[in-house]
Amino acid sequence: xxxxxxxxxxxxxxADYVGLTDGVRKMRHRPADGFxxxxxxxxxxxxxxxxxxxxxxxxxxxxxxxLSPEVHALDCAxxxxxxxxxERLTGFHVHRGVLASFGRLPTPDPAVVLEGARRVLVLEGMxxxxxxxxxxxxxxxxxxxxxxxxxxxxxxxxxxxxxxxMGEVFNVPYAWLDDWPGALGDLVDRGFRVxxxxxxxDAVSLRDVALADxxxxxxxxxxxxxxxxxxxxxxxxxxxxxxxxxxVDSLNVAAAAAIACWxxxxxxx
Length: 269
Hints:
Layout: E1 3-5, E2 35-39, H1 41-49, E3 54-59, H2 61-64, H3 69-72, E4 77-80, H4 83-90, E5 98-103, H5 110-114, E6 119-123, H6 129-141, E7 146-149, H7 159-164, E8 174-176, H8 182-189, E9 193-197, E10 204-205, E11 217-221, H9 230-235, E12 238-241, H10 253-264
Helix pairs in contact: 6-10
């Protein structure tokens, strides 16, 4: 790679990286919107390994020599800027010192990601990027085959979601469910047992639900705070809860997802 110095945020060659904290970039994007940003050497490597086409790399001088061989080998422009320029350009302190812009791939149809799947996560209204990234990381680690998102969920490829997931958003197949909550009925028709997680006292304890290893199970989770809508709960097969100590009414949705994935995910190995 031949590093190209960048002296300021007005350089058109680094336009992909301008204003990464802008609210517009936090909206859910479709593949036609073009690109996403990966942050950190490990995440950049995972994006490239997953087949996303790299557009460019932006790195601090201090991190240039420490880039992994895989990132060094990427066939793209490499721009170098000091930390103060990176911060002015992106709008935040780039403490990992490495960013890369990747082109998006078409998002598959739900039928494609469900083919052969036995354990899936279904998310309704999850619009916090940190929680979404954490959920994807748990899904990858704890035996889930895919993630399905309702139309109001945020973008899994937004920078913060990608970073919190440590790049696992590239390894867990996901798709959008445009017909909501009607898509839950489609899951039931496909043989999935849809388990809606709720802290409600009248829900069945998840540890009391017997699940066969080859059973098709969909864990349904809602947004932090409001939780699942009544329509989504009615469309599920069974409402389930995580048993908790008296006086504690709920968990953060990312924590709840991790526990539920551990309970119902495919056994490791």
